[in-house]
C-alpha cells in the first residue's frame, strides 16, 4: 500500500486521529436486530465474505468481456486482471446501449438482485424487499476517483429507508481506489438540513456545493474533515465483501493509483422495503435516470 493515500490528488492525514479502518460487522450478519443497532451507530455495515465469491467473479468476467470487446483491456494480460489498454473503441458503438448492457447482464443481475444480497436485505429489513432496477457499474481508470457526497441527493424521491450496497467486483485494495466513509457523518443533522435537501436533477443549475460536478458536496477530503470532524475510514476490499450504508452517510473514494494500471471494477446497488415509495427515476426496464427534473 502507498504511504500517502490521496483523493482528488489531495493527501489524507493518515494519523490515527484522522484515519482508520472500517469496523467489521461480519459476526452480526445473521442477527437483524444487531445489524440495525450497528447501522444506527456507524451509518454503515462492513461484512467480509457476505457475498458468494464465485458469483462476484462471474459478474467481473461478464463486465470485463464487454470492456475487452471495445478495446479497453490490455490483451497481453489475463482478462480478470482488468489491466487497462489506455484506449477505447466505445465511440464506435451505441453508448447508451453499451452502458445498459453492463448493468443488465445476467451475471450482474444474479449478483445484485438475487441470492445472498437479496436474502441479506430480507433479513435486515424484516420485510419483502425490492431493489432499484438500475444497477450502477463503475469501471474507474487510474487517476479516477469519486467526490464526497450523500446518495440521497441522487435518489431522494422515495423512501429514506433506502440503502446502498457497494460491491468490490474483484479485490479492491486501497491503491485501486477503495471507498472512504467519513466516521459519524450520518449523524450530521445540520448537513442533512442543508446539503441533504439537494436534488441533483431539480437543482442541477444551482448546486452551491459541488458546482459543475453535480451532486458532490466537495472534492476536498481534508477540508470536509476539518469542517465536520471524524476519521476517514476504509479497508482493503476482497471479492465477496459488501459495504452497506445509509442515504446520509458521507462517502467518496481514494484515487485509483494502481501501479499495474488496473481498472477499479465495482457496483452500487440499492434496496428498500417493497411497500414504501420508490424514486421513479431508477425503476422499470428503461429507467429515466437523470433525464427528468
What tags apply to this protein structure?
293 residues; alpha+beta; Jelly Rolls; six-stranded antiparallel beta sheet; four-stranded mixed beta sheet; 7 helices; 12 strands; globular
In short:
By secondary structure, this protein is an alpha+beta fold.
Helix and strand topology:
Elements: E1 6-7, E2 10-11, E3 19-21, H1 32-42, E4 44-47, H2 53-69, H3 95-104, H4 106-113, H5 115-125, E5 129-131, E6 136-140, E7 163-168, E8 179-182, H6 189-193, H7 221-228, E9 232-234, E10 242-245, E11 251-253, E12 264-273
Parallel strand pairs: 3-9
Antiparallel strand pairs: 1-2, 4-10, 5-12, 6-12, 7-10, 7-12, 8-9, 8-11
Helix pairs in contact: 2-4, 4-5
Task: Please explain how this structure is put together.
- This protein is an alpha+beta fold and 293 residues long.
- It has a single domain, classed as q2cbj1_9rhob like domain (Jelly Rolls, Sandwich).
- Helices cover 24% and strands 17% of the residues.
- The protein contains 7 helices and 12 strands.
- The chain has helices at 32-42, 53-69, 95-104, 106-113, 115-125, 189-193, 221-228; strands at 6-7, 10-11, 19-21, 44-47, 129-131, 136-140, 163-168, 179-182, 232-234, 242-245, 251-253, 264-273.
- Strands 4, 5, 6, 7, 10 and 12 form a 6-stranded antiparallel sheet that branches. A 4-stranded mixed sheet has the order 3-9-8-11, with no helix packed on it. Strands 1-2 form a two-stranded antiparallel sheet.
- A hairpin with a 2-residue loop joins strand 1 and strand 2.
- Helix 4 (106-113) runs parallel beside helix 5 (115-125).
- The longest helix is centred in the first third of the chain and has 17 residues, at 53-69.
- The model has no long low-confidence stretch (mean pLDDT 95).
Amino acid at each position: 500500500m502507498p504511504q500517502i493515500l490521496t483523493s482528488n490528488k489531495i493527501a489524507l492525514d493518515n494519523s490515527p486521529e484522522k484515519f482508520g479502518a472500517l469496523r467489521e460487522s461480519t459476526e452480526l450478519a445473521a442477527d437483524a436486530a444487531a445489524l440495525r443497532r450497528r447501522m444506527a451507530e456507524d451509518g454503515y455495515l462492513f461484512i467480509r465474505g457476505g457475498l458468494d465469491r464465485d458469483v462476484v467473479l462471474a459478474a467481473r468476467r461478464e463486465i470485463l468481456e464487454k470492456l475487452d470487446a471495445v478495446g479497453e483491456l490490455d490483451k497481453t494480460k489475463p482478462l480478470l486482471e482488468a489491466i487497462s489498454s489506455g484506449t477505447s473503441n466505445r465511440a464506435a458503438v451505441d453508448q447508451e446501449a453499451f452502458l445498459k448492457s453492463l448493468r443488465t447482464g445476467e451475471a450482474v443481475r444474479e449478483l445484485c438482485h438475487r441470492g445472498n444480497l437479496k436474502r441479506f436485505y430480507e433479513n435486515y429489513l424484516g420485510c419483502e424487499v425490492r431493489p432499484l432496477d438500475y444497477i450502477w457499474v463503475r469501471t474507474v481508470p487510474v487517476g479516477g476517483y469519486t467526490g464526497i457526497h450523500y446518495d440521497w441527493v441522487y435518489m431522494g424521491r422515495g423512501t429514506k429507508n433506502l440503502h446502498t450496497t457497494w460491491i468490490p467486483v474483484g479485490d479492491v485494495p486501497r491503491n485501486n481506489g477503495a471507498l472512504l466513509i467519513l466516521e459519524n457523518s450520518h449523524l450530521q443533522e445540520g448537513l442533512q438540513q442543508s446539503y441533504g435537501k439537494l436534488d441533483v436533477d431539480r437543482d442541477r443549475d444551482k448546486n452551491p456545493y459541488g458546482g459543475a460536478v453535480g451532486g458532490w458536496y466537495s472534492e476536498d477530503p481534508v477540508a470536509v474533515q476539518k469542517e465536520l470532524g471524524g476519521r476517514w475510514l476504509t479497508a482493503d476490499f476482497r471479492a465477496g465483501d459488501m459495504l452497506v450504508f445509509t442515504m446520509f452517510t458521507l462517502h467518496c473514494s481514494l484515487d485509483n493509483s494502481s501501479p499495474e494500471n488496473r481498472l477499479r471494477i465495482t457496483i452500487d446497488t440499492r434496496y428498500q422495503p417493497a411497500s414504501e415509495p420508490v424514486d421513479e427515476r431508477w425503476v422499470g426496464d428503461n429507467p429515466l435516470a437523470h433525464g427528468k427534473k
